[in-house]
Design a protein that fits this description.
Blueprint (H helix, E strand, L loop, with lengths): L1 H5 L9 E6 L2 E6 L2 E5 L5 E5 L15 H17 L4 H8 L4 H9 L6 E2 L7 H7 L7 E2 H18 L1
Antiparallel strand pairs: 1-2, 2-3, 3-4, 5-6
Helix pairs in contact: 3-4, 3-6
Bound molecules: calcium ion (2 copies).
């Protein structure tokens, strides 16, 4: 993968590439690359000037961060389930609880929108609309997704 991503600095500015690797998501458009760790820390790099990704420009280029975040969210919405949900109920039901606790940063037993893996997932999972996803809601969303995946497409 890396040879594709870093081999050229003359990328078409309209060309866009998104990917997910474990808990990380990233988008590259033209010379710009935006990365997100699972916890919502955004990092922005200009690969034309900074191929080693040492100089995080997220703080100085907020408009570009927002633009790339939107593009990444649009891409994400087309994907199937976020990795953590997909893994959780497939083979080992116990994993969902662990995952849930990892995402529940403040440990209050529910996921706030900024703790959730994606905004799209959050909107779907918060079925009672109280602005939080409880463990039961997360589990229900996962089950519904696993059962409904084929029907949705
Ligand atoms: Ca929480
Ligand atoms: Ca809820």
């Amino acid at each position: 993968m890396d040879s594709n991503l870093t081999g050229q600095s003359t990328a078409d500015p309209q060309e866009q590439l998104c990917w997910r690797m474990g808990p990380k998501t990233a988008i590259r458009r033209g010379d710009w690359k935006l990365l997100c760790e699972a916890r919502g820390e955004w990092e922005l790099y200009n690969l034309a000037e900074d191929i080693g990704e040492r100089n995080d420009l997220a703080a100085t280029e907020p408009a570009r961060v927002a633009e790339l975040r939107d593009a990444l969210a649009a891409w994400d919405a087309q994907m199937v389930e976020p990795l953590w949900v997909r893994e959780s109920f497939g083979n080992q039901g116990g994993n969902l609880r662990q995952r849930f606790e990892q995402f529940d940063e403040d440990g209050d037993g529910r996921l706030s929108p900024d703790e959730a893996p994606t905004e799209q997932w959050f909107r779907r999972a918060d079925t009672d609309g109280d602005g939080f996803v409880s463990f039961d809601e997360a589990r229900a969303a996962t089950r519904a997704r696993n059962q409904g995946r084929r029907a949705e497409r």
